[in-house]
Amino acid sequence: MSEIPVRCRAVSVVALRRKAGRNEVLLLRRTGSLRGEWCQIAGGIENGETAWQTALREMREETGLVPQALYSADICEQFYEADQNSISLLPVFLAMVAADQLVALNHEHSEFRWLEFDAAVALVPFSGQRSVLRHIERDFANGTPSEHLRIL
How far is CA 87 from CA 55, 78, 100, 102, 137, in A? Predict the structure, then answer.
């Protein structure tokens, strides 16, 4: 009997800001793999990094943003990758950012949008992303996250 490997080699980060009384999440339009699709911040874990350190590095590299607070979102994004016949499992982090921080995109993205949850959910291509965004909306934007999930 053959098994499908489960791999955790990357992280996912949802950036959240509160502006003019509204909760908004950041989506980025990809230029490389998944070209043209709208996604949250994501990237591979480098040797010697913890997952949360990867989240901070990827956030800084892809957007120039530095969070005011970083949380484990207490959820993982998961999907099957046919080209590798494996299941990818990505820990999700929630980064709270100041409303006035400017986004500086790197070469991996062509544009960005700050969107309210309903608009963001309608724009992302995968059901796993939609589930993650709804979880963030419920437990972080509209709820009070446990301090046990706070990393920074």
Answer: 20, 7, 37, 35, 25
